[in-house]
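Standup notes
- HV: blocked on the assembly model, inputs below
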Amino acid sequence: MAGTDRTQASMTGGPRVVLVEPQLGENIGAVARAMLNCGLDRLSIVNPREEWPNPRAVTMASGATKVLDDAQLYDTVEDAVAGMTTVYATTARPREMTVRVVTPRQAGAEIRTAEARGERVGILFGPERSGLTNEHVVLADTVITVPLNPAYSSLNLAQAVLVVAYEWFTAEDVTDPDVISTPGTRLAEKEEMHDLFERLERELDAGGFFRAPDLRETVVRNLRAMLQRTRMTEQEVRTFHGIVSALTRSWQHTQNAKRRRGEWPEPDED
Amino acid sequence: MAGTDRTQASMTGGPRVVLVEPQLGENIGAVARAMLNCGLDRLSIVNPREEWPNPRAVTMASGATKVLDDAQLYDTVEDAVAGMTTVYATTARPREMTVRVVTPRQAGAEIRTAEARGERVGILFGPERSGLTNEHVVLADTVITVPLNPAYSSLNLAQAVLVVAYEWFTAEDVTDPDVISTPGTRLAEKEEMHDLFERLERELDAGGFFRAPDLRETVVRNLRAMLQRTRMTEQEVRTFHGIVSALTRSWQHTQNAKRRRGEWPEPDED
């Protein structure tokens, strides 16, 4: 699949995803895929409605079948969380009970810390249509509710797993949030930019670009500001030099052509 | 659907999602649902492979059909972005070109700012299997790449839209990341907790709980620390008083029963 680098070893560990009475095999497969996208590969399934293993789950998992192969099957949620020390329950709607409620981002950060302490963490996700019952929610320490459009806040099962798993992943992700990617080259040094600017301005002087000499300084400043915004690479600086050369040559070219045709050439400079 | 409050007006606005040559109607429907989950409702579709409108899209949109009804259809990406001032392209894999790359979180924050300035923002998503071509990517100002498990980084179309839309939504979401939800009650005041502690400790003294008087202070401190961690509501404090009463009564009860049976009662206190 686009973007997948099979040479990279898959990550392991992270919290265990516990699907409580999932209705459709397709959704279990989609969950496995969303989990592996975010480096999670430990799945438990409590009392699925359809038979297990489920071929439709394998189809939807598209490549994340190992997560399905290693999935643990349980009859009750109590059994599924028995060995855990920290359990979260995901709910879309507020419950009529006094309970700690956190966002997925908060949960992602504190799960990372808990795991570093050696805690065994699980996250409960309820059936597609109804979600977790209050009886399931009280088996957890904390509720996770995804902040969403209040007029339309119901995520499908795999989408809910993705958001929670994504926040767990990004809680320790070190990706530069804003970078200029320069494959096979590097950003230009300022001196390279200044040489380009001065060369360009010389040619523009020769071409009579600056009609109003008293405005030259301002026009040059704005021109440099515009070209600076491109954050050129050293390669692009060389390309831009080539463009300037080509444009000046093309002017000479037309001049010479006119001479050959015996026309009056335009004055080379004034 | 669980969690959806139909009385809430749907949010509108936000960046326009542009699906480039989507292959399956189902996926377009799933995209509409993910968009509306995050308060986005402006969708453009460029040259879909299947016919449009598409009944399978409506099925998958489960409730988000208005997003599909209002979707704009285009023949080319150039036409779709023509009126926009700021365009992002989502790619899973790095491209062989010098381009600015940001995370969805960074994009969500800067799109909010751009919209506040009145910019018209669009986000391109490529076909399911192949993703955007480089020809499409160069139509954008900035690339968005979702940080994911490098060994398995390919999200399905609706999942990619969800992550980017979710980051746009949360960029201005004011949900308390960590709160104790206390429906119909409030957290107990410290005085209510202290009264409960002192009452409990009196009964424990009477019941001979503190066998080693020199350890009493420590045991009491740890007991109070444990009960404090529950962050009781005032209602739960009253419940806990009732529990203490019931347990002491049950002791009296068994004593009296023994007396009635002519057995020696245990000493009431020592």
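- HV (later): unblocked. Chain B touches chain A through 71 residues (CB under 8 Å). The beta strands of chain B are 16-20, 43-46, 72-74, 86-90, 99-102, 121-125, 142-144, 178-181.
- Next: hand off to the docking folks.
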